[in-house]
Amino acid sequence: YSTPPPHLDFRAFVSALRSDNDLADIDAEVDPRLEVAAITRRAYELQSKAPLFNNVKGAHDGLFRILGASGGLSSDPQYPYRRLARHVGLPPTSSLGDFIDTMLSAKGKEPIPPVHVGTGPCKEHKLFGDNIDLTKLPAPLLNKADGGNYIQTMGINIVQHPTKPWVNWSIARAMVLDKTRLVGLIMKPQHIARIYEQWEESGKDMPFAIALGAPPIAVMVSSMPLPEGVTESEYVGALCGEPLELVKCETNDLYVPARSEIVIEGTLSITERAKEGPFGEMHGYSFLDEESVQPIYNVKAITYRGGNAILPISVPGRATGPDETHTLIGTLASAEIRQLLQENGLPVLNVFTPYETQVIWAAVQIDRKKLWTLKTNAEDFCRRIGDLIFRRKCGMQIHRLLIVGDDIDPFNFKDVIWSYASRCRPGMDEYHFEDVAAYGLVPYMSHGPGTKVTGGKVVANCLLPHEYNQEQLWVTCDFENGYPEEIKEKVLRRWTEFGL
Ligand SMILES: Cc1cc2c3c(c1C)C(C)(C)C[C@@H](O)N3c1c(nc(O)[nH]c1=O)N2C[C@H](O)[C@H](O)[C@H](O)COP(=O)(O)O
Ligand SMILES: [K+]
Ligand SMILES: [Mn+2]
Known about the structure:
It is built from 14 helices and 20 strands. By secondary structure, the chain is α+β, with helices and mostly antiparallel strands.
C-alpha cells in the first residue's frame, strides 16, 4: 500500500507525531493494569509527548501496543494544538479556531460516500470463534475505581439504521465482560442509542463494528454531533474531498476503514444486559455508586493490522491537561453549536467550551455591531440562544452558555472569566432553563440536589445593556487597549534595554 497522509492512516499519524518530536516510544514493559493509564493521565496533565507503549505486559500475537493521549495537547508549548491539527491535515501552527473552521468546512458541500475496497491492512490477521478471548487481551484498567477493563475508548462505534440508509459513526465506551462479550454505554439522545431503539423495535440484535486506530479524521467526525441522519463517513469524504476506503466486515454487512489497526465486530444484544462501569468520566469524577446496566456486545470476529497493532486509548479525567473528552467532545460540540447559531441568523463569530470549565460551559462570541441591528435586549437575545442550543442534541453536554462580546477571545479563558465576573449581574443577567434535557453525567445533575434528567441550564449575559445598541463606553485597561500605538511600540522596542 502507498502510505497515505497522517489524517487518513493511524500508523502514518503515529509516525508524524514521532517526527514532530511529540511521541515517546516506551519499549520497557508496562502493565496495562493501571500503569499505562496513570502514565497517560500524567502525560495529559503535564502536556508531555504522547506515550506509545510498544511493550505492553500480556500482549501476544500482535495484540497489542497502546497509544495514549492521541488527542491531548501537544508537548510543544508554542503550538499546543498541533496534535489535533495532525488529525485533519492542518499545519502544526494551527489555532483552535482554524481547527473548528476546518471541521465545519464541509457544511453545505455535497457528501462524498466512501468506496468499498476488497481488502486492507485491518484484514492482515483474523480471529473467530474459540480464537477469540477478550480476557486474554491486555485491555487496560484506566482508573482504580473502574468496573472493568475499557478496551473501547477511542474506537469508532459503527452501526446502521435497520431501514434507512443511515450509517452512524460515533465514540461510545465499552469494557470487557468475558471471553467473547463487551458491555458499553448506550445513552440517549446519542445516535447509537436512537438507532439501537429501532433495532429493538425490529426485534433483531444490532450488528456493530468498533474500528480502533481508525483514520484520525474519521475519529474527529465520529466525535462530532452532526445532525440526525447524516452518515459520518460521507462527511469525512466531503472534508477530504475524496472518498474514504472501507472494507466489509467478516460477520456482518457493515463496512470499516480499511486502514484501521483493530476491528471488533459482532452484534449488540437487544435483550441481554450487564452491569457497566463505574468509569472515570469526562468531568473528572468516578462515582462509586454508578448503577449503569447496559447492552451486551457479542463479539463474533476480531481482525487486525500486522506489525503489532496499536490500540488508542483515552483516559478521561480532570481537564487540568485536557484529554480527548475535552479536546474532541467539547471543541466539536462548539463547532456544531456555532453552525446552528449562524444558520439561524445570529451574529455569532465563534463558540468554545473552555477546558477550565470541564467543557460544561460554552462561550458564544457575538459580533456587537451586528447585534445592534437586531434591536434586541439581553432577555430576548439570551432566551432565543438558549431555546436554540438547549433544545438540540449538539447542546446536550453544555449547561452554561456565556454570551460575550467580540472584544473577548472565546479561546482565552482569562478573557471569558473577566467578562463573566465583571459584566454579568447576579440575579438579573442569567436566564434559566429548567424544561430542557440535562446532561446526566454532570455531577450536580447525577448527584445533585434537584432533578436528574431535566433542567439545570442557564444562559449568562456577559454584555452590559448599552453594548446591545452602541459602542462600549469604556477603555479596557490592559497593555493592548490602554495605550496609543506609538507608546506601545516604544515600550516594546526598549523592553530589553530596561532589563525587565
Ligand atoms: C471523544 C470521545 C467521545 C465520547 C466518549 C469518549 C471519547 C474519548 C470516551 C473516552 C469513550 C468516554 C465516553 O464518555 N464517550 C462517550 C461518548 N458518547 C456516548 O454516548 N457514550 C460514551 O461513552 N462520547 C461523545 C460522543 O462520541 C459524541 O457526543 C458524538 O457526537 C456522538 O456521535 P453522534 O451520536 O452525534 O453520531
Ligand atoms: K458522530
Ligand atoms: Mn451521528
